[in-house]
Amino acid sequence: MYVMGTNRWEVDKTKDMLVKQALDFAEEVKTKGIAELRDFYLEHDQKLLWCTWETDNPKGLEEAFDVMNKQSGLMSELAVVEDMYPE
C-alpha cells in the first residue's frame, strides 16, 4: 500500500538540513524493512514536505514517524493513498 505523509514545522530549518533529515529517515525505515520512500516534495517557504511511501506495515511507519517527530520537531500526518482515491 502507499502512504502519504504531510510534514510541517514551526522552527526555522534550512532546506539542506530538511533534505538530509528526510533522506536519513528514509534510509532508516528502509533498512528496518518498514517502508520505502517513493517520492518527496519540499515547499520550504511554506514549511511543508510531502512524502509517499510504499509499505506493508503502516503501523510501523506511523510509529517511526512518531519517534522522528519527537526528535526533529516536525509535525506529521499520514494517510493511506488508496483511502483518498477509492475505486
Fold and architecture overview:
By secondary structure, the protein is α+β, with helices and mostly antiparallel strands. The protein is built from three helices and four strands. The chain has a four-stranded antiparallel sheet with strand order 2-3-1-4. The longest helix has 17 residues, at about 15-30. The radius of gyration is 12 Å and the shape is globular. The two termini are about 15 Å apart.
Features:
alpha+beta, four-stranded antiparallel beta sheet, 87 residues, single chain, 41% helix, 3 helices
A few lines on this structure:
This protein has 87 residues and is α+β, with helices and mostly antiparallel strands. The protein has helices spanning 15-31, 58-72, 81-84, and strands at residues 2-8, 35-43, 48-55, 75-80. The mean pLDDT is 93.
Order of strands across the main sheet: 2-3-1-4
Tally the helices: what do you get? 3
Sheet of most strands = 4 strands, antiparallel
Helix content: 40-55%
| Shape label | globular
Secondary-structure blueprint of this entry?
Blueprint: E1 2-8, H1 15-31, E2 35-43, E3 48-55, H2 58-72, E4 75-80, H3 81-84
Antiparallel strand pairs: 1-3, 1-4, 2-3
